[in-house]
Predict the 3D structure of the following.
Amino acid sequence: MSLDLDRIRAAHERIRAHITRTPVLTSSRLDEASGASLFFKCENFQKIGAFKARGATNAVFALDDATAKRGVATHSSGNHGAALARAAKLRGIPAHIVMPKNSAKVKVRAVERYGAHIVFCEPTQDAREAACADVIAKTGAALIHSFENEDVMAGQGTAAVELLEDVDVDLVICPIGGGGLLCGTAVAAKSIRPKIKVIAAEPANADDAAQSFQAKKRMVTEKKFTIADGLRTNIGERNFPIIQRYVDDIATVSEEAIVSGMRTIWETMKIIIEPSAAVPYAAIAEAKIDPPSQNASPARTYGAAGIVGKRVGIILSGGNVDLDSLPWTQTK
């Protein structure tokens, strides 16, 4: 079974009772600053505070009864772990979450709150994968990967379905880490409105997706530090071919623009978003968005921001922030 609009719509029906239909907010001030009409799909208001609730819930409820009975497992330092723990609790099955031992306490508490069994490991990708494989071998639990799972991708795509049911847009922008949200968003958007443009945004310090997109082959890179911790992951092997087929471009943004974008949205729209969620708006603020068009010229028909006069949907991916260490309060 491949990822398509029918599968995304089926996911929407499956999870509808277990998620929040998040609002689409606007800001005349941000419209004026960008020269575009911006529509923010607020997944910071989603269950567990992030879009991850959609994919994890769909994957858990898509399991047959015999498989589900054995439980589910994943490795995650953040939102996916909490989302999977919540989904497993809703279905009444065990959840095993492997977390790096240096995971933020707020994230550990979020997983504990839903009654999942936590296994701590060293904070490396190899250690996470090994510990998760060990848990699966011992328990028979089903692996629910945070992005290389088509049921997860289909669940994430339901955010774009809702966005396009609520507003008509020319362009959708979402962040890219492993690629689960982007795959679901791109397939949904292009299937519903074939002429729509889909653009991803990622930190310049974690630009493996942009490098891969340009090179037309998947690249695995060493990550530098980025405040957008949810986007440090390399793009998934299963995700990249979907992105190649459906995505129009991938923009990269500076750390300064991420912090500035996060603060601008907080101050202007009065909503809390995490750094990863600020990355798409940062791409607009840094004039990195120039959607391909039959009418476009090298002189950038759409003006300095690349989106002037366009209707732009932005998926605000989450709002889980450590309020004790906001980026603009840290001494350098």
Q: What stands out?
A: The CA atoms of residues 202 and 252 lie 5 Å apart. Strands lie at 24-25, 37-42, 72-75, 95-100, 117-121, 142-143, 171-175, 197-203, 249-253, 311-316. Confidence is low (pLDDT under 50) at residues 292-305. The first helix runs from residue 5 to 15.
